[in-house]
Amino acid sequence: MVEATQQDAVISVRGLVNRFDDNVIHQGLDLDVYRGEVLGVVGGSGTGKSVLLRTIIGLNRPVTGSIRLLGTDMINGSPDELRAARQRFGVLFQDGALFSSLTVAQNIQVPLKEFYDLPQDLLDEIVAAKLHMVGLSPDAGTKYPAELSGGMRKRAGLARALALDPEIVFFDEPTAGLDPIGAAAFDQLVRDLQQALGLTVFMVTHDLDSLHAICDRIAVLAEKKVLLTGPMDVMLKAQHPWVVEYFHGPRARAAAITATLEERM
Amino acid sequence: MADGKLQAGPDGRTLRLSLTGDWTLAHASALLTRLGGLTTAGLLRDHLRDGGQQLARLETGGLQRLDTAGALLLARLYRQLEDQGFTVEWPAPRHEHRALFEYARGCGEAVTVWPEIDGGFAGFVRHLGWLTLFFAREARRFTSFIGEVTETAILTAFRPGQMRFTSMVHHMEETGLKALPIVGLLSFLIGMVMAYQGASQLQKFGAELFVVDLIGISVLRELGVLLTAILIAGRSGSAFTAQIGSMKVNEEVAAMRTLGLDPVVVLVLPRMFALILTLPVLTFFADIMGLVGGALMAWSTLGINPDLFFHRLHDAVALRTFFVGIVKAPVFAALIALVGCYEGLRVKRDAESVGRLTTRSVVQSIFLVIVFDALFSIMFNFLEI
C-alpha cells in the first residue's frame, strides 16, 4: 500500500529550523508524509516532536524552512489559503483539548458551524455519526468534557478532529495516559478509521505497541533532524545507538513479541 | 469541486436516481433541499402511477467525493425510498463510498444531543430548591472549615516550630506592602470626593467647618476599613484562591498530604495570619491618606487651611472613632483569607473550576465583609460606643 502512493507527499517539510532563544530544536529538518500512510514520529524527550507537529499545523512559526501541506504553503500562505487548508486536516491534542464549557456534541459542531450553514437536524445527525465512528454512545454527546473518562475524552476529541472529514489527522501521543487495553482499542480505532476514510495519519508517539500495531512508517527525530525513516524492519536493523536502544530495549522486545503473537493469531 | 447533484427519472420500469459531483458538507444544504423536493414533488407517486415497478437503482458512477454529511444524506434518500416500499439496488458502488454509507446507516437515527433545559415554573422551583440546598451545604462546609482552621491554629500556637514564618512574611509583602500604592491612592481620592460633596451641601447652611467632622468620622469609622477590605478581597482573596486552586489542579495539595504536610498549616495559616497582620496596617494607611485627601480638598475649595483642619479634627473626632474602625480590620482579614483559601481548596482537577471559584471567592468575601460591617454597626450601637 505504501509503495503505490510513494510519490504523493501530502506533507513535505524542507530545511526546517526551529530555535527558542539560544536553544536550537531543529536544524535543517526534512520530512515527507505520503497519502494514506500512518507515520509514527518518535524521539527522546526534548527532541522537538511536539514542536514539529505544532509547526506543521501552523501553531508555531519556524525561523526558516518550508512546509507544504496538501499543496498549501503553511508558512507564507495567505490567511484565506490557511483557512482553507485548516478544513482539510484535524488535530487530536494530548488530552482531547475539548472546550470545557461546551458539551461533546457542541464541541463537534463548532467547526461545522464555523465553516458551513447547515440545518440543526443534519448537524445532529452528523454528530451522531461521528460519535458512532469513534465508538462513543449517543448519550456521551450530552455530557461535558469534565464528566468523561480520559479515554472517552480522547475519543470525543477525535470525533471533533474528524468533524470536517479531513484528509490528514495529527495525533499528539494518542495513547498516553490510557491503560494497555484502552490503548490497544484506540490504536485499533485509528487503524479502522484510517482505512475506512482513507486518512493520512501523522502521529507523535512513545508507545512501542502503537508503532508495531498501526504505523506503516516511522520517523526518528534525533540530532535536531529526522535521523531515519522507514518501516519497522528498517528501524530494527539500524545502527544508531539511540535507535538501537529504543527499538531493542526491554520494552521494545515485549512489544515486538506481542505484535508477532497477534500476527500469528 | 463539482456541485453535488441528484437526478431522478424513470428508466424503463425502474426509478433511476443518479448521483453526481461532490456530496460533501459544502453542498449539503443544497442537496438537503433537493432531497426534500423529491418527496413533495410526488415523483415517487408519479412513478408508481405511470406503471413503474417498485424498484429503484442508485447510479453513482459520476459521484466524486463523499463525506460523512453526504453519506448521511444518501442514507436518508435510501430510507425515503424504502419507506415508499421500493426495493433499492446500488450496483457497483466504489468501495470507500459503500464503507462510509454503511457507517452512516449504522449510526441510526439522530439523537437529541443537547442537554435538557429545565424550563418553566417547575424548572424555576427546582432551581430554587437546588440553590437553597446548595447554600445550606456551603454554609455548613464553610463553618466546618473555619472550625478546622481554628483548631489547627490553636494546635500550632503550642508548637510554634510548625508555623511557616518565611511563607507568612512573603504573603505579608504580597498582600500588604505591594498593595500600599493602590490603597493609598484610592482612599486619597475618596477623601477628596467626600470633602467636595460635603462642602457643597454644608456651604448652604454656612457650616463649612463641619466638613472636617464629616470626613473624620466617615473615613476613620467606616470608609477606610471597608474600602481597604474590599480592595484586598479583590486583590489578595482572589490570588489565594487562584494559587491554591492551581496547586489542586496540579495535585500538589494531594502530594502535600501524602508527605505528611497539613495543607491548612502550610497554605492557609500563613496566608490568614499575614492578612490579619497587614490589613490593620493598610487600614491605618488608608485612614491617613483619606484625611489628607479631604484636608487638601477642604483647603482648595473652602479655604480651610490644614492647620485649622487638623485642629478641628482633634476637637471633633475622639480617638475612639479611629479604634472603632480599625478593630474591624483583623476580622475582615480573617474572613477574606478564609474564604479565599476555602474556595481554593474546593477546586477540582479541571482548570475551569479555578476561574469559577476565584470569581465566587471574591463575591463571597466582599459580601461577608459588608454583612459583618453591618453586624459591627449594630453591635457598637448596642454597646453605645
Describe the structure.
The complex is a heterodimer of chains A (265) and B (385). With 265 residues, chain A is of the alpha/beta class. Chain A is 41% helix and 24% strand. Chain A contains ten helices and ten strands. Chain A has a six-stranded mixed β-sheet with strand order 6-7-8-3-9-10, sandwiched between helices. In chain A, strands 2-1-4-5 form a four-stranded antiparallel β-sheet, covered by helices on one side. In chain A, a hairpin with a 2-residue loop joins strand 9 and strand 10 (225-230). In chain A, helix 3 (104-115) packs parallel to helix 5, helix 6 runs parallel beside helix 7 and helix 7 (208-214) runs parallel beside helix 10. By secondary structure, chain B is of the alpha/beta class. Chain B has helices spanning 25-40, 43-49, 68-83, 95-106, 120-158, 165-175, 180-202, 211-249, 252-258, 263-302, 306-316, 319-326, 328-346, 351-383; strands at 5-11, 14-23, 55-59, 63-66, 87-89. Chain B is built from 14 helices and five strands. In chain B, helix 6 packs parallel to helix 10 (263-302) and helix 8 (211-249) runs parallel beside helix 13 (328-346). In chain B, strands 1, 2, 3, 4 and 5 form a five-stranded mixed β-sheet that branches. Chain B is elongated and about 115 Å long. The chains are: A alpha/beta (265), B alpha/beta (385). The interface between A and B is medium-sized, with 36 and 32 residues.
Element string of chain B (H = helix, E = strand)? EEHHEEHEHHHHHHHHHHH
Enumerate the strands of the largest sheet of chain A in spatial order, edge to edge or round the barrel.
6-7-8-3-9-10
Indicate the mean pLDDT of chain A. 85
**DSSP strand tally of chain A:** 10
Proportion in helices of chain B: over 70%
**Integer-rounded radius of gyration of chain A:** 19 Å
The end-to-end distance of chain A, rounded to whole angstroms, is: 22 Å
Residue ranges of chain B: pLDDT <50 for 5 or more in a row?
none
